[in-house]
Amino acid sequence: MIRVLLVDDQPLIRSGFRALLDAEDDITVVAEAADGAEGVALARRHLPDIALVDIQMPVVDGIEATRRIVADPALAAVHVVILTNYGLDEHVFDALRAGAAGFLVKDIEPEDFLHAVRVAARGDALLAPSITRKLIDRYVAQPPHPGAATALRGLTGREREAVTLVAQGLSNDQIAARMVISPVTAKTHVNRAMTKLHARDRAQLVVIAYESGLVTPRRP
């Protein structure tokens, strides 16, 4: 059973998501919070698998709530998914760097929303296509970050290749096919890269890949 915490200051939004999630046999909403501070407290109390967190809230916003959840060792298994109305604003990348596993736009179709919750529960990075495109575009004019480039030196060639493919949005099965290895071996390369780079999840691998210059985005 996938346990979900809803953190949003709009009761109507929370009730809509709750009705959708609770109708599924494999998903249950364990708690709701109206601001980030309450959300962090409830995360500590209920230990959900997924925390769906609005990016803009009173008291404590979604970025700070994400930061607090990620920093708490007791909440290491909680995957934070940011909810946003705007696709990509100035706060989205900050939340990703703070440790968010991904983002969803609130006008997402119900079936896509449910699929996204299940994807996040597996620990996979979750970025809505509109957000991914804009996030990549943001890097086009930015030079590589020296610290991130240095971190890559500890990776093997195959691990670097796996990180590159993760940043391109490929799943482990797709990475395996591209590298002509088994899915288990592909997962091993990805997991070892995450450990060496101190990445919480695949979403942070994407950040590192672009910040380091390992992947260079190009406009069509």
TrEMBL record:
Could you tell me the keywords of this UniProt record?
Answer: DNA-binding, Phosphoprotein, Transcription, Transcription regulation
InterPro entries listed in its UniProt record: CheY-like_superfamily (IPR011006), NreC/VraR/RcsB-like_REC (IPR058245), Sig_transdc_resp-reg_C-effctor (IPR016032), Sig_transdc_resp-reg_receiver (IPR001789), Tscrpt_reg_LuxR_C (IPR000792), WalR-like (IPR039420)
CDD domains in the record, alphabetically? LuxR_C_like, REC_NarL-like
Q: Which GO terms describe its molecular function?
A: DNA binding
Q: The Response regulatory domain covers which part of the protein?
A: 3-121
**Domain of life of the organism in this record?**
Bacteria
Tell me which Gene Ontology terms the entry assigns under biological process: phosphorelay signal transduction system; regulation of DNA-templated transcription
Q: Where in the sequence is 4-aspartylphosphate found? A: D54
Question: Is Transmembrane given among the entry's keywords?
Answer: no
Q: Where is the HTH luxR-type domain?
A: 148-213
Annotated protein name in UniProt: DNA-binding response regulator
